[in-house]
Amino acid sequence: MTLPTKMTATGSCESVPFPIRNPNGCSERISLLSDYLEAEIPGLTVEYVPVTEYTGAVTGFRVGDLDAVWFGGLTGVQARLEVDGANAIAQRDIDEEFTSVFIARADSGIEPIEGVDGLSVLAGRSFTFGSESSTSGRLMPQSFLSQAGIDPTEDFAGQPGFSGSHDATIEVVSAGSFEVGALNSQVWDARVAEGAVDTDEVIEIFRTPPYFDYHWVAQPDLDDRLGDGFTEDLTTALTGLDESNPDHAAILELFGAGSFIVTDNANYEAIELVGRETGLIR
After folding, report:
1. Three-class DSSP category at 176
2. Kindly report the CA angle at 129 between 157 and 140, in degrees rounded to 5?
3. Checking CA distances to 137, which of 71, 88, 171, 174 falls within 20 to 30 Å?
4. Pair 122, 203 in one domain
C-alpha cells in the first residue's frame, strides 16, 4: 500500500478522564499511540493536534482538519452527523458498559438511591452537571433524571450548574456549592481509590445503568486519501494493543483501558436518541 505521509489525530483532553490530573498526559497518551501506529502502518506519520474542549474537536472533524478523533459518546455522534459517512471504529473495552455516578454532600441527608425512579428524591436540591457536552457528566445523567420525572430546568433548587469537568464536579459538591452532582464513574472511582475524595464529606448515592461512551471516529475518505484498506488497518492497529506487552500496556493505561475493541455507528443510536430528546442534538 502506498500511503501519504500524514494522518491527523486528536483526543479531546476535556473528554477523557485519564491520565489523572496530568496536564501533559493528553499529549503523552497520543504521542505514544502515534509512535505505535507509525510502527504498525508502514509509511504513516501521525500528526497530533491538541484539542482541549469538546466543540473544538467536533469543529476540527467537521471541517476536515482531523482524520481521526477520540470522542465522548455525544460528541462522537455530533461529529458523525456533521460528516456524512463518518464511522465509529474502535472503543475501549470498558465503553461497552460505561456508567455515571451521582454524588452528594454527606450532610445533605440524601440516602443511597436504588433504581432510576429513585432519582425523583433529588427534586428541590441544588445540582450540577459537568461539561455541557459531556456524555457521562451531562447527557446520560439528564436522561436518567428525565426518566425519574425530573426536569432539570424546573425541578432543582435554582438552575443546574455546569462545573466544566468531572473533577470540578467533585470539588464544587465537596465545597458545598451544590448538594448533588453527576460525573463519569471512572473518574470518581479513581479519585476515591487515590484518596483524593473525602468520603466523609461527599458520598456516591447512585450509579446509572450502563451505556456506550468513548470511541474513535474516522473520516469517511481515509481509504481514498491514505490507500485502500487504511481504515481497516487503523482499526486493526488500535484493537491490536495488548496489555501483556509492556509498551502497549503503557498506552492502554493512559487511556484507562484494558484493550480497544471494534465498534460501529449502531452502538451509539441510543446516544443520538437521548441527545435529540434533551435538545443537545438537533
Report:
1. coil
2. 115
3. 88
4. yes
The DSSP call for residue 242 is -
Q: How far apart are CA 40 and CA 43, in angstroms?
A: 9
Q: Looking at the structure, do residues 89 and 181 belong to the same domain, yes or no?
A: no
Contacts of 257 (CB under 8 A, 6+ apart): 92, 93, 94
CA 112 to CA 104: how far, in whole Å? 9
C-alpha cell at 172: 464544587
For residue 119, tell me if it sits in a domain: yes
Q: Looking at the structure, tell me whether residues 91 and 126 fall in a common domain.
A: no
Sequential pLDDT tens for the chain (282 residues): 334 445 666 654 444 433 333 434 566 777 889 899 999 998 888 888 877 677 888 999 999 989 999 898 999 999 999 999 999 999 999 999 999 999 999 999 999 999 999 999 999 999 999 999 899 999 999 999 999 999 999 999 999 999 999 999 999 999 999 999 999 999 999 999 999 999 999 999 999 999 999 999 999 999 999 889 999 999 999 999 999 999 999 999 988 899 999 999 999 999 999 999 888 898
Range of the domain at 69: 6-96+212-278
